[in-house]
Amino acid sequence: MIIFAAIQIVLSQLPNFHELSLLSLVAAIMSITYSSIGLALSIAKIAGGGHVRTTLTGVTVGVDVSGTEKIWRTFQSLGDIAFAYSYSNVLIEIQDTLKSSPPENKVMKKATSIGVSTTTLFYMLCGMLGYAAFGNEAPGNFLTGFGFYDPFWLIDIGNICIAIHLIGAYQVFAQPIFQFFENYIRNRYPENGFIHSERIINIPIIGKFPFSPFRLVWRTLYVIITSLVAMIFPFFNDFLGLIGALSFWPLTVYFPVEMYKKQAQISKFSKTGIWLNTLSSACLVVSILAACGSVQGLVQALAHYKPFKVS
């Protein structure tokens, strides 16, 4: 995690979102690669036989978990799914990097359709084949279930792909935060030399690079703080679920729906308006349930919590 943070400190010095196209492409390729490795290993495990306990409704109440625990886990899983589709908070930044011909909105609509369809296909395959391979003992982290499964080198490659993917994903989500904060500070303190100073420096291989002392200090501190939080509270799935629950309804559903209604001048009591409001309300309920499940999971994890220890 310290090595990961060191890499992020370097990459965070990229001045803006437009410099991330290559990194984003590599991250996407890595995502498809480790998912494909997991699917291939699942198929091999299924084909190899061996009995795993599976049921139509998942883990069995009274055997694997209590009824209450299963409900909480179901709510947590909703948060994980919501997080998996939480790309909407970087949608505008991505669209802003596109050329104006053809129109950005048409390109973005096509890209979103392909991206969501591809993502859903891989998620469903990993979920179904992973459950068929591991049954009710399926791990939260897909590839960890193959820890003692030959070939070991293939699992290592999968884990390397995950690390590279997360390196790119961190930047894709962090860069909009960097831009927002820096624009706010620069507008707030227009005469501050430290905040506004920037000069071009020559870096071997890379070439000319815009260097800003303010950007170096504040982005480095941001990476260090987020990395420390991740080390202190290593509750991966629960935190993912909570973040997904808190961001899913407002960013992925409510604001886009309200903007569309305003732009298309859709009446609140029209047929389309009623259906959109129903969709928004249903997603709000999902977000609330997911948040409750994730908080319960965090509370449960804290009962056995030791700082800087993997849960």
TrEMBL record:
<feature type="transmembrane region" description="Helical">
    <location>
        <begin position="239"/>
        <end position="257"/>
    </location>
</feature>
<dbReference type="GO" id="GO:0016020">
    <property type="term" value="C:membrane"/>
</dbReference>
<feature type="transmembrane region" description="Helical">
    <location>
        <begin position="278"/>
        <end position="303"/>
    </location>
</feature>
<feature type="transmembrane region" description="Helical">
    <location>
        <begin position="216"/>
        <end position="233"/>
    </location>
</feature>
<feature type="domain" description="Amino acid transporter transmembrane">
    <location>
        <begin position="1"/>
        <end position="299"/>
    </location>
</feature>
<dbReference type="GO" id="GO:0006865">
    <property type="term" value="P:amino acid transport"/>
</dbReference>
<keyword id="KW-0472">Membrane</keyword>
<protein>
    <submittedName>
        <fullName>Amino acid permease 1</fullName>
    </submittedName>
</protein>
<feature type="transmembrane region" description="Helical">
    <location>
        <begin position="152"/>
        <end position="173"/>
    </location>
</feature>
<keyword id="KW-0812">Transmembrane</keyword>
<keyword id="KW-0029">Amino-acid transport</keyword>
<keyword id="KW-1133">Transmembrane helix</keyword>
<dbReference type="InterPro" id="IPR013057">
    <property type="entry name" value="AA_transpt_TM"/>
</dbReference>
<dbReference type="Pfam" id="PF01490">
    <property type="entry name" value="Aa_trans"/>
</dbReference>
<feature type="transmembrane region" description="Helical">
    <location>
        <begin position="111"/>
        <end position="132"/>
    </location>
</feature>
<feature type="transmembrane region" description="Helical">
    <location>
        <begin position="20"/>
        <end position="44"/>
    </location>
</feature>
<keyword id="KW-0813">Transport</keyword>
